[in-house]
Each structure stands twice: as structure tokens, then as C-alpha cells.
From TrEMBL:
Residues 1-20 are annotated as: Disordered. InterPro entries: Methyltransf_11 (IPR013216), Methyltransf_Superfamily (IPR050508), SAM-dependent_MTases_sf (IPR029063). It comes from Streptomyces luteolifulvus. This is Class I SAM-dependent methyltransferase. GO terms for biological process: methylation. The keyword Transferase applies. Pfam families: Methyltransf_11. The keyword Transferase applies. Keywords: Methyltransferase, Transferase. It comes from the Bacteria. Residues 77-169 form the Methyltransferase type domain. PANTHER family: METHYLTRANSFERASE, N6-ADENOSINE-METHYLTRANSFERASE TMT1A.
Length: 270
């Protein structure tokens, strides 16, 4: 048992972190923090809601994957599914979802809540599916913010989609990287360069990464999407709704009414 005096607070820094280091660090982080995450955010996410981000943009209203009545019978891959709330909603519309996540512990929460659809533990950069297996793919803050090679992941997603397939993913809005990650007034003043792509890394006393997040500008994201063979058909920047009075990390009504917090990219393959 770790004594309180032995507890170590990870050091936050900005440094390079490659594909393997990022995957190892983030798998470990989500396994360690899945329980706390589900306790803290489970009520907001619900068991079977499809929410694109902390603003609360709901797929029921957004229809970024298409009208709900057209989802019936569609094969859908959810990447970075967590407890599979989005997949559970998709199943409720008559779709055939597969929920994939890097973290075993997150998928245990999906099992706890339940649902009659497959759960798959795998890396988004090595999807264990045949070419053309899915009609649609989605990722609500899953995988893309945490990978060092987003083009490779996007190409993998394109590979498993059928012609005409759509991939919709949400990430922290890139402009947020220029501001402190604070929900109050201190989070409203620019403190860093928007153009600094150096990853954010939390590391242990031996310098081993225990959490990694990667920054891409809006332009980078668009170029990544095109380089992977997708067409970008929409870019949604959800506004903060009046009903949402909750704070989620650096997201808050104060900041959300002034600067965007989430970017949702709607992509299609030929």
C-alpha cells in the first residue's frame, strides 16, 4: 500500500511524445482514472445519450451521423467509446454498433451498464476489422486528441468504412490550447502560442509519460482529414446553451459563451 508520503503528483510539461509512448501512457491513464471519470461525468453523459462534448450538443438534435430514423440497420464503429454511452444510443435507434476503446477499465464500465453489442479493446491505429466493415464511424473526444499520428488513425478509419461512409469526430477546439485550462476568468487570457504543436505531457519521477495530449490547429486537422482520403463536409463549433450550468474541467458557461470549446469534424469517404 502506498503511503501518503510516497504519493507522486505527475509533472506537467510540453515535450515530444511518439506513437508508442502516447498509446502506453494514455492506456494506463484511462485504466487508472476510468472509475473517477464515470463517477464525475456519468450523470451528464447518461447511460444511453450521444453527447458530442461538454457543451451538451446531442446527436438527437445535431443529426451529424444522419437522421435517427436512417440509422436503423447501419453498422457503426464508435472509437474511444469509454462506457459506450453513444453506442447504447445508436443501438436504441436500431443501428448495429461496435464500441472500441484502448482502455480495459473503461470497457468494464460499458459491461457494467450493459448492452447487446460488441465491445472491443484495441488501438485506433490498428483497427481489428476488415476493409469496408462499417457504414458509419464516430468518436466523441475519443482517440484523436491523444494520438501522435492522426493521419494514420484517420486512414485506418477510412479503410474500415464502406464507400460513402461518414466519420464524425469531436476534439477540444484547437484555440483552447492558447488559453490556460481553467473555467474561471484566468482561462480567458492568451498564455501560449496557438501554433506551438508540442504535446502536453504529464510524466512520473523517472520522466515516463503517464498522460499525453496532442495539439493540432484547425488547419492541421483539415489537412489531416484530406491527407487521409476524406472530404470534410462540415465543421461544427457548438455554442454554449443556456440550460448548461455545469463546469467540466476547463469548460464552463463563462468561457463557453466567449470562446469555442469543442470542434466537431464531419467527414465522408468516396
Amino acid at each position: 500500500m502506498i503511503q501518503e508520503s510516497e504519493a507522486f503528483e505527475p509533472e506537467a510539461t510540453r515535450r515530444d511524445a511518439g506513437v508508442a509512448e502516447s498509446a502506453r501512457a494514455n492506456r494506463g491513464w484511462w485504466d487508472r482514472n476510468a472509475d473517477e471519470y464515470q463517477v464525475e461525468h456519468g450523470t451528464f453523459l447518461g447511460d444511453d445519450r450521444f453527447v458530442w462534448g461538454p457543451e451538451g450538443l446531442d446527436e438527437v438534435e445535431a443529426e451529424l451521423l444522419g437522421p435517427p430514423e436512417e440509422l436503423k440497420g447501419k453498422d457503426v464503429l464508435e472509437i474511444g467509446a469509454g462506457a459506450a454511452q453513444c453506442s447504447r444510443w445508436l443501438a436504441g435507434q436500431g443501428a448495429r454498433p461496435v464500441a472500441l476503446d484502448l482502455s480495459h477499465r473503461q470497457l468494464q464500465h460499458a459491461l457494467r451498464i450493459g448492452g447487446a453489442f460488441p465491445l472491443v479493446q484495441a488501438d485506433a491505429g490498428a483497427l481489428p476489422f476488415a476493409d469496408g466493415s462499417f457504414d458509419l464511424a464516430c468518436s466523441a473526444y475519443g482517440a484523436l486528441p491523444f494520438v501522435a499520428d492522426p493521419v494514420h488513425v484517420l486512414r485506418e478509419v477510412r479503410r474500415v468504412l464502406r464507400p460513402g461512409g461518414r466519420f464524425v469526430f469531436s476534439v477540444t477546439h484547437p484555440i483552447r490550447w492558447a488559453f490556460p485550462d481553467e473555467p474561471g476568468p484566468e482561462g480567458l487570457s492568451v498564455a501560449a502560442s496557438y501554433f506551438d504543436r508540442t504535446p502536453y505531457v504529464e510524466q512520473d519521477e523517472d520522466g515516463r509519460a503517464v498522460y499525453v495530449e496532442h495539439h493540432r490547429t484547425i488547419g492541421d486537422r483539415v489537412r489531416d482529414i484530406v491527407a487521409a482520403g476524406f472530404a470534410l463536409v462540415d465543421l461544427v463549433e457548438p455554442e454554449w446553451p443556456a440550460w448548461n450550468t455545469a463546469e467540466w474541467g476547463g469548460w464552463s458557461p463563462l468561457r463557453g459563451n466567449l470562446i469555442p470549446g469543442t470542434a466537431v469534424f464531419v467527414c465522408e469517404r468516396d
